[in-house]
Structures are given as structure tokens and as C-alpha cells.
Amino acid sequence: MAWVYLTIAGIFEMGWAIGLKYTEGFTRPLPTILTVGAMIISVILLGIALRDLPVGTGYAVWTGIGTVGTAILGMYLFGDPATAARLASIGLIIAGIVGLKILS
């Protein structure tokens, strides 16, 4: 169950990272409230997952999910560059996440 909590926490991390763009420097109330809510949920779920997972593994996977998801969403939503090097780097992060899962 810890991995489920960790995965959901990573998804909420993507949500708050993307949400930061929509807050426009925390000047828009609704996006700001949603972004802060996603931050809180993400950290709470990470904390729950870390009851059963090693902290290094849990934190690395959490940030990895957030990083990969945010990078992909940035390409889709904001037209961030999707160069071969960037996509290869995302692939390396995914390989690291899978490796940590397999070894835990």
C-alpha cells in the first residue's frame, strides 16, 4: 500500500508544480488555493508512504514521479521543448524509479 500512497503523492506533486505556473506568482486566488492544497496532500501522502519505505527510496521516487510528470506536462501544456536529449533524460529518471522499486 505504501507504493500506492507514494504514487498518488507523486501525482499531487505534479499537480502543484504545474499549478505554480497558473498562480502567476500567487496572485490568482483559486489556482493558489488548489496549488497549496496539492502541496499539502502530496507531503502528507509522502509521509504516510515513508512509514513503510526507506526514506531515500521514497523521496527519490516521489521527486522522480513529479519531475517526469511535470516535464511531460510542461511539453504538452506550455510547449516546453521536447528534444531528444530531454526525452532521453526523462527516460533515465524513469529507469532510476523502476530500479529503486525493484530493489526495495
What would you note in describing this structure?
By secondary structure, this protein is mainly alpha-helical. The protein has one domain (2-103). It has helices spanning 2-23, 29-49, 55-78, 84-103. Helix 1 (2-23) runs antiparallel to helix 2 and helix 1 (2-23) crosses helix 3 (55-78). The longest helix is centred in the middle third of the chain and has 24 residues, at 55-78. The chain is flat, with a radius of gyration of 14 Å. The chain crosses the membrane at residues 33-50, 59-78, 84-103. It is found in: Cell membrane. Pfam families: Multi_Drug_Res.
Task: Provide a compact summary of the structure.
The protein has 104 residues and is mainly alpha-helical. It has 4 helices and no strands. Keywords: Cell membrane, Membrane, Transmembrane, Transmembrane helix, Transport.
SSE layout and pairings?
Elements: H1 2-23, H2 29-49, H3 55-78, H4 84-103
Keywords: Cell membrane, Membrane, Transmembrane, Transmembrane helix, Transport
Family: Belongs to the drug/metabolite transporter (DMT) superfamily. Small multidrug resistance (SMR) (TC 2.A.7.1) family. Gdx/SugE subfamily.
Transmembrane segments: 33-50, 59-78, 84-103
**Major sheet attributes:** none
Low-confidence stretches: none
What number is the mean pLDDT? 96
What is the count of DSSP helices, taking H or I runs of 4+ residues? 4
Rg, alpha carbons: 14 Å
Q: What fraction of the residues are assigned to beta strands by DSSP?
A: under 5%
Helix fraction, binned, reads over 70%
What distance separates the N and C termini? 13 Å
**Strands, count:** 0
Total of domains: 1
What is the SS-derived class? Answer: mainly alpha
- Overall shape: flat
Order of helices and strands: HHHH
